[in-house]
């Protein structure tokens, strides 16, 4: 095979791979948008549940929240308390383990909620409900 043929084959494979990468980037963008919208909707539903439970007559027990995700618990905590939390304080408040791997997972979740616009970071390691 001569060099010209090899270059044409290489260019063809490059073009196919670039097209596939573009398709995957588009899918990632679509999934990211859908995920962000779904997480925001879950947070809205959790807040709505809280409001409705607050309007219920005395003696009414709030509906169980057994299937709530950790994200819902986090967002609900920020909505209810409206204060700045550090990750470890949030873990203690939610009754979650305070070992470093668990703290790091929550730190990642809080970062995702900041990027989604549900929370803000007023200082290093501090998180609060977006105002």
Largest sheet: 3 strands, antiparallel
Percent of residues in helices comes to: 55-70%
The beta-strand count equals 3
Distance from N terminus to C terminus (CA atoms, Å) equals 65 Å
Name the structural class: mainly alpha
Strand content: 5-15%
Give the uncertain stretches in residue-range form: none
Query: How many helices does DSSP assign?
Result: 4
Mean residue pLDDT: 84
Strands across the major sheet, in which order?
Answer: 1-3-2
Computed Rg:
23 Å
Please write the string of helix (H) and strand (E) elements: HHEHHEE
Q: What general form does the structure show?
A: elongated
Outline the fold blueprint.
Blueprint: H1 3-55, H2 70-81, E1 85-86, H3 87-94, H4 100-115, E2 119-123, E3 126-129
Antiparallel strand pairs: 1-3, 2-3
Summarize the model shown.
Helix content is 68%, strand content 8%.
Descriptive key words:
single chain, 131 residues, mainly alpha, three-stranded antiparallel sheet, 4 helices, elongated
Describe this structure in words.
By secondary structure, this protein is mostly helical. It has helices at 3-55, 70-81, 87-94, 100-115, and strands at residues 85-86, 119-123, 126-129. A hairpin with a 2-residue loop joins β2 (119-123) and β3. The longest helix has 53 residues, at 3-55. The termini are far apart.
């Amino acid at each position: 095979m001569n060099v010209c043929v090899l270059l044409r084959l290489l260019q063809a494979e490059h073009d196919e791979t670039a097209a596939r990468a573009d398709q995957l980037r588009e899918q990632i963008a679509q999934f990211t948008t859908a995920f962000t919208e779904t997480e925001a909707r879950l947070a809205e539903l959790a807040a709505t549940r809280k409001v409705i439970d607050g309007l219920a007559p005395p003696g009414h027990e709030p509906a169980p929240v057994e299937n709530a995700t950790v994200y819902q618990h986090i967002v609900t905590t920020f909505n209810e308390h409206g204060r700045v939390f550090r990750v470890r304080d949030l873990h203690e408040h939610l009754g979650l383990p305070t070992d470093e791997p668990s703290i790091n997972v929550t730190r990642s979740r809080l970062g995702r909620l900041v990027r989604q616009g549900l929370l803000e970071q007023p200082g290093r390691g501090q998180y609060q409900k977006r105002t």
